[in-house]
Amino acid sequence: MDNKLKFQQLECYKLATDEQKEKLNKEQYFDLDKLPGNQLQTEFVEYIYYRGTQVSILTIKRERHYFNSLCEFFQKSSHQENSLLDREKDFWIKQLKMWMIQNGRALTKHKVTNIQTESVEKAALIRYFESLLEFTLDRSETNELAKDIWHLERLPLILRTNPIVNHKTLNFRGIRQPDIREEVKKAIYHHLKTEALGSIKRELSAMNKFSKYLDEKHSKISTCEEIDREIIEQFLINIKVESNGGNGIRDDLLKLRNVLETIGKIYDFPHLTKLFLKSDFPPERKAEFKSYSDSELKRLNAQIVKMEEQIARAMIIHQMLGTRISDTLTLRKDCLYKHDRQDMIIIYQPKTRRYEKPISRELAQLIGKAVSYANEHYPESIYIFADENKPERPISYQTLQDKVLRMIYEKDIRDDSGNLFGFGTHMFRHCYGVKLTELHVDDWTIANLLGHKGVRSVQYYRKMSNQRMADETREVRNFMSQIIAVTAGKGGTGKSTTSANVARGLAALGKRTLLVELDFGLRCLDIMLGIKDKVKHDIGEYLEGKIDILTATTKVETVENLYLVCATRNPFMDINPEKIMGVCEEMRQHFDYIIIDTAGVGSSVFSVIKAAELILMVTTPDTVCVRDGAILSDFLYVKNCTNQRLIINKVSQNFKDEEILYDLDEVMDSVGIQLLGVVPEDNNIKVCGAKGMPLPPTCPGAKAYAAIARRILGEDVPLTININ
């Protein structure tokens, strides 16, 4: 045997990062010659190799100190055992503690957690030795189910586990009665086939507590067959006296009942299925509903974004998704896709199921950056937020919690009451749910967005009132910006003029607005906006791949917040709808509104119109214009473009003539579209358009376009002209 077990031989060294390796000395090893006897050396080697598959190389470096201490312990001990299997675990631990006391070593240490609570725990050396003993004992047994500690990876089952919680074993040694321990093993194995591992852990914990009670109060009980209703009633009295109440008691009793009933079915103890009454279980306490305020979130996020980049991304994405923390940390690299230009995300819930939901473009971009980081640093992992030591697993909740709590205490971040922030990731989910209720979203939609199977939990998010905030469902919009297509049934309606002035109106209201001109060969918006000499590039150069779309964008100097992408002068260039929509998608992150001045109604232009969130149909009170507008509107409705609004342009005060339509109501009825605005005939529109000047704010045309812009924003603004 090579008596120097080098770090380089361990699996965790092979997986270590360069940064981790730099923290090691040039040559580090375990000196096995310090151990008396070949068998002890073999047992330690097997354990160290096993640890090398479970922890990082830096943890191994720390554990070498415990190894050296144990070597000293074995060298100075008076016993002559050649193997750890020669004695029981309790014997070894007792001997180690005596040695530690003789050498002035503490048996315990005080621990202050990230939430400023103190606890006392065993010294690290004792915990390391216990782990070594359990590992060695387990390896000496061949049948995993016969052991008192089950290594989950060795069980012949596919387990329902939560990847962010690193469960490795099930320990039955807390059940003090040997026969009951074996009965519980069979019940737990049966439950493992259908229940989540977290639930199994709670069942085992409940049985440990019950076993302790039996050992102390009913020491003659050796098998579950001997448990009767009287013992259960005495146990119920005991826990009510000893505990502080709460949902913990209820859950323990439910889990205890589940295990005992299964044992009764397996071993044919029918009375075990009738031990508990409904009245034995305390009523479930409703947890206090808490949610961060906007000011609290702002303070917390100001520091979160300064954390290491992938942790910061995980926390911000978690907030924006409104998911459970397990759902966020188990996001996979292939979770993003598009459906009808809408960004979508696939979420695999360890707790329930897989589901999908729409997300904003901004959130999709942030997740994309996290995916790129993961691909660069952990290419072998399927998870976006991979554990740096075991990339095949996602980062654990405990790791995330430790990092965030440490930041909170270091930065002294406090809530609105002046208390230090706690860390409850579910509160972010509460914030998300509350925001949805404030948007008047219906219960079923909220449940779907939150990944609930039903609507029962939604009531907790409606915190502002006991009544439903709204009966109707409103579509939840996730777009950063809105695309508006301006079209007409024929030329001469003032479509481009309308596009320019509506864009001016939105910009004047503080909305970053982009005009995209598609009238190839006949561009005019640069003249109308007064930037004829400022335009250096156009959309044609972008479509040819010569420049990017930002280079093709020109700022309108006379209007704050307004930008233009000019049409090409080439009338024969095809309008590529995919590339045009690519422009829109790329520019969503920069603008609140994107207005597309369309040209004609060909198939390529139609594809662009169909993608818009709002379609403005421009017509004049002219018989031909109205007829052509109605034809185009009907065609768009057939193609499921129902989001249309009508703008009646060039309305003269003396238009009521026997030879034309009688009034504007008849125009609306003929076109069949809900009215958005009426623009009067105003000579200022022609003059200012030709000179590239904004309209005088007091003229009728300026007032009409300003009213239209405000209506697009959802304001209730009256028409500036009487249509009766």
How would you portray this structure in words?
- The chain has 724 residues and is α/β, with parallel strands linked by helices.
- The protein has 4 domains: 1-140, no CATH class; 153-283, no CATH class; 294-461, Intergrase catalytic core (hpI Integrase, Chain A, Orthogonal Bundle); 482-712, P-loop containing nucleotide triphosphate hydrolases (Rossmann fold, 3-Layer(aba) Sandwich).
- Helix content is 44%, strand content 11%.
- The chain has 26 helices and 17 strands.
- The protein has an 8-stranded mixed beta sheet, sandwiched between helices. A 3-stranded antiparallel beta sheet has the order 7-8-9, covered by helices on one side. A two-stranded antiparallel sheet has the order 1-2.
- α7 (178-192) crosses α10 (247-267), α8 crosses α10 and α12 packs across α16 (426-438).
Descriptive keywords:
single chain; 724 residues; alpha/beta; hpI Integrase, Chain A; 4 domains; 8-stranded mixed sheet; 3-stranded antiparallel sheet; 26 helices; 44% helix; 11% strand
